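Side project, low priority. Logging it here so it doesn't get lost.
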Amino acid sequence: MKFRILILISIFFLAEIFTACDRPSDTGEILLSDPGVVSYSFRYQFEEDVPSTLDMIKEMGITNIEFSSLFGLTAAELREKLDERGMVCTSYGVGYNTLMENPEQVISDAHTLGVKYVRVASIPHDRSANFSIDDARRAVEDFNRAGEILSEAGLHFLYHNHGYEFRPYNDGTLFDYIVQNTDPEYVNFEMDLGWVVHPGHDPVELLQKYPDRFYATHLKDFSRDIEHNYSGRAPAEANVPLGEGLVDFPAFLKAAQDSNIEYHYIEYEDLDVVEVMPGNIEYITSIKK
């Protein structure tokens, strides 16, 4: 009898353990994957010395980089240096005209780097005039065409917002027009949080509006006293350490769990990036559910 009771007690405690493992944690980390960084944050360091900059970034605990420049190397040379350090490039940023005029080279470099996403971060337009519906219509047409070409090559196209697309249009914005008129099979988006708050919008609301269209982010923050406008421009010193500016990162990362976002890339553009980036990483990874 005592032996049977001990067995029953053991079964009870084992069941509790396995049940607890299945319960969602209320205190676990909110990120679904380790954060990466944007190479542009370390542009001056990479321009001086790619290998030592990679070593520095890895020492900060980051192994995933979104490159938007090859910094004088070939894609094969950069891939070799990443492989040597156990690092990866998961997204490759290219210029709008580069993708439209030479998609074959973009595809070749992307495959060599081993990326999943190809990203464009700006739509050419007359900066002396406002970003217009004509600019948006042209981008929609170009994005759908380029996105299909990339898809056929096993790659995914993302457009990275830059602020000026949030100019009002009809009942929404020009960004709404771009999202709603691009084919989600071929075109999706990388949300730069800084360039959402800069024109006065809320990243959480935008993500909840289009939860299936965003696949990556730039985690960037702007000063609380910045002037809201649709210029798509701001001085580098308007960047502030994550959590000290306009963006509500805990609310956004919570919302991101119910979206298609796969990668978060931390971006900081001011000159003191080497001093500030470790704190940015610590802040983002410390946010809990």
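Brief comment: DSSP finds twelve helices and ten strands in the chain.
Revisit when time allows.
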